[in-house]
Design brief:
Jelly Rolls, 396 residues, 36% strand, alpha+beta, 8 helices
């Protein structure tokens, strides 16, 4: 959604000088490429060795990063690692020792479960092979952007462009932050925490990945729940055909409040959708759903608070549920995006690569196949007759 206000700045002179740091000419190309393009020609990408921390950009003075574009090779047979998981981005502002951004590569750009997925939003997007950020990232006294390869094999090719405006002085007091978190499994009756920050700033949004873990299809238990609750709908709750985690909602607490100033009604409602993302994936400028799969019991969604950034002056806590009373066991991971004045609190320790890999979906696929199989139709009809008989007696 491009509004008139985004275009009017083109009618007035712009401050500063636009510059770009790129991977062009950083390294000589591999032999097979050098022979193809000509010996002595510059390489366009960089290779990152196992365990190496590669400095993508180190910029002195004041300025604002206005665009980040990157791309990597996607998983193919013979490539031992998915570098959407294995690479980690770290951004530092104004000489700070602790990074303000520490997020796995693919997750930062919204890639769900390491599988490159096309979507278009205003601040972040994945478009036809490119990974894009348009979040403005100001700094007053230099910045450093690093990529860490935590795989045990080289990352064969990272391409990048970092576009920034060089300024004499940086007027913006806030700094960009992004943090990755995961709980697998989620804690029983405890909401999932997307963000906990202290200081002064505003929350700018999240990417959230939700996957059911454990058993949800149990016909005997479903009939029993219907009997216990006194409602036929009880057979489908709390698991809701593997999507029961969506029955929770967001709760956002600002400046130490004990009751959330922003309470929600449902997880998909927070992402401006409804009824378990009823029509499936879509992308809009400030919110969207990149995955909705009953087969895999997975949902991936994003929301950016661009025109409705949530301010805080002392602290902010952003929680989101996994089920109506946080009773649905799930695998949740997220990236929170926010701006605040420095210093920021140290982030939770980023898990090693093995702790960032997706949970296999085989159990969920098997359950959905059983649930939707024609073999179960007679049993379902018998169960419905039983429920009708039970509730018919109660009503009489």
């Amino acid at each position: 959604m491009i509004t008139h206000s985004h275009l009017t700045h083109l009618t007035v002179p712009q401050p500063g000088k636009m510059r770009q740091v790129s991977s062009q000419g950083r390294q000589t190309p591999p032999d097979f490429m050098a022979k193809a393009i000509g010996v002595g020609e510059p390489g366009k990408s960089v290779q990152i060795a196992p365990g190496e921390t590669y400095t993508v950009a180190e910029i002195a003075g004041a300025g604002t990063i206005v665009r980040i574009w990157m791309t990597i090779m996607q998983p193919v047979p013979g490539l031992p690692h998915n570098f959407n998981h294995a690479l980690v981005l770290r951004f530092y502002w104004d000489g700070e020792e602790l990074p303000s951004v520490e997020v796995p590569f693919g997750a930062f750009f919204g890639v769900p479960w390491g599988k490159y997925t096309h979507y278009i939003a205003e601040p972040l997007s994945c478009t036809s092979g490119g990974y894009n950020s348009r979040f403005p990232m100001p700094f007053s006294n230099g910045c450093r952007i690093e990529v860490v390869n935590q795989a045990d094999a080289p990352c064969p090719a990272l391409f990048f462009q970092i576009q920034y405006v060089e300024l004499d002085e940086q007027p913006a007091p806030l700094r960009f932050h992004a943090q990755w978190r995961r709980e697998n499994p989620t804690q029983d009756h405890v909401p999932y925490r997307v963000l906990e920050a202290t200081g002064t700033g505003h929350f700018a949004g999240m990417h959230l990945w939700m996957q059911k873990v454990g058993r949800w299809f149990d016909p005997a238990a479903m009939v029993q729940r219907a009997q216990e609750t006194g409602s036929p709908m009880g057979a489908f709750f709390p698991e809701a055909i593997g999507m029961g985690m969506l029955e929770g909602w967001e709760s956002i607490y600002v400046d130490g409040e004990t009751a959330p100033s922003i309470p929600g009604t449902g997880n998909e409602d927070y992402f401006n959708s409804g009824f378990y993302f009823s029509t499936g994936p879509y992308s809009a400028p400030h919110w969207g759903c990149t995955v909705r799969s009953y087969l895999a019991s997975r949902c991936a969604a994003y929301r950016f608070h661009i025109d409705d950034a949530i301010p805080f002056h002392e602290s902010i806590v952003v929680d989101i549920d996994h089920g109506y009373t946080n009773q649905v066991q799930a695998d949740y991971s997220s990236v929170a995006y926010w701006y605040q004045m420095e210093p920021h609190v140290a982030f939770p320790l980023l898990p090693p690569l093995a702790g960032r890999l997706p949970t296999p979906t085989g159990e969920n696929i098997t359950q959905f196949a059983l649930f939707s199989s024609p073999v179960w139709v007679p049993a379902t009809l018998v169960g419905l007759k039983m429920l009708k008989k039970i509730f018919g007696k109660r009503s009489s």
